[in-house]
Structures are given as structure tokens and as C-alpha cells.
Amino acid sequence: MVEAAGGSALTLMQLVAQLFSGFRDHAVYKGHQVFLYKRAQIFVGDVYGAFGGEGLGAFWDIDQLTMFADYRVPVVLRNMGILSYSDELVAKVERKEIIPAGSEEEVEIRACTVVAVERLREAIAHKFRGTGAQLPHAIQLDWWLWEIGEQNRQNHPPHHRTLTIFY
Ligand SMILES: Nc1nc2c(c(CN[C@H]3C=C[C@H](O)[C@@H]3O)cn2[C@@H]2O[C@H](COP(=O)(O)O)[C@@H](O)[C@H]2O)c(=O)[nH]1
């Protein structure tokens, strides 16, 4: 399957989503279909990481993947003041109330995380414009943010609770 993707991260992600229904991570939000594809993308990210971006892990479009929208990174972004939740949502998350999979709140948390990481990339690109610095891919920012979240599991506020097969 990796070989069939011909070095394209997006093709590999699409193949995974086509072949395995459990990876077809999408939702309908206010009448619009939203594709998050967390596990299909993290699979490609893991192949890329495991091969150090070479051989089977060489993808010319790796920068096209988004961060992997799940539950740890939004906590970190909230803590950094990059994401903010409504008082109502904060209360639900703090009470560890189940936020149903595919509900508006759950899709908003995940989709806003993707957008926030893209904005972070833009801000980094702006700050380092003209310096020749190599800009991070969304998945590299994900790894960095996720690691911060893992290291702070005890002192960060709780993450949202959702029963789902998608992350
Ligand atoms: N957004 C995001 N979510 C991530 C990861 C990782 C760690 N993996 C990276 C580390 C090196 C590799 O290159 C991997 O990519 C795990 N998780 C999620 O947490 C959950 C628990 O997982 P565990 O503790 O394994 O059982 C599961 O839903 C898992 O998918 C990440 O990096 N970003």
C-alpha cells in the first residue's frame, strides 16, 4: 500500500481511508461534511517518522497533512491561550461529561485544533520570513504539542471525553 501511494502522503492517506472503513473519520457539521482523518494521517506520519523521511517514508507532499485531531493537543493549545472554549464547554470538559462523537462541540474542538495549528504555522512563517529557516510541517507541530501535553498530563486541565473509534 505504501508503495502504491508513489511517494504521496495524501494518496497514502486516501488509500487507507478507502480500504479501511474504521479510518473514514468524517462528520456532518451544520450540513457540511468535515473530514478529519486523524488515524489515516497519523499512520502516514508514523511511516514518515519511522523511516526518517527516507525510502518508504519519503513523501514529497508531507507538508499537506494536518495535525492529528484528537484530545491531547487541544488541551495544550487551550493552556497556551491559543484556543478558548465557551464557559458551557469548559464546564462539560471539567466535569468529564461525555461529548458525543460527531456532535457540534466535538467537531468544533477537533476542527479548531486543525485550524489553530495552521495559524501557528503561518505565524512562524511570518516571524522567520527571509531568514531561510526551515518551517515546521503541521505534523511536526503536532508531535511537539502532543509531547508537551503528555509531559503535563498531571497538571493540565482534563481533556474532553468522547467515545469514538476515530482517535
Ligand atoms: N495527536 C497525536 N496523538 C497521538 C500521538 C501519539 C504518539 N505517537 C507518536 C510518537 C512517535 C510516533 O511518530 C507517533 O506519531 C499518540 N497519539 C494518540 O494518543 C492516544 C494514546 O496513544 P498511546 O499512548 O500510544 O496509546 C491515541 O489516540 C493515539 O493515537 C501524537 O504524536 N499526536
TrEMBL record:
GO terms for biological process: tRNA modification. The keyword RNA-binding does not apply. InterPro entries: Q_salvage. It is an enzyme of class 3 (hydrolase). It catalyses: queuosine 5'-phosphate + H2O = queuine + D-ribose 5-phosphate. Coiled coil: none annotated. The keyword Ligase does not apply. Keywords: Hydrolase. Signal peptide: none annotated. Its EC number is 3.2.2.-. One of its GO terms (molecular function) is hydrolase activity. Belongs to the QNG1 protein family. Catalyzes the hydrolysis of queuosine 5'-phosphate, releasing the nucleobase queuine (q). Is required for salvage of queuine from exogenous queuosine (Q) that is imported and then converted to queuosine 5'-phosphate intracellularly. This is Queuosine 5'-phosphate N-glycosylase/hydrolase. The lineage of its organism: Eukaryota, Viridiplantae, Chlorophyta, core chlorophytes, Chlorophyceae.
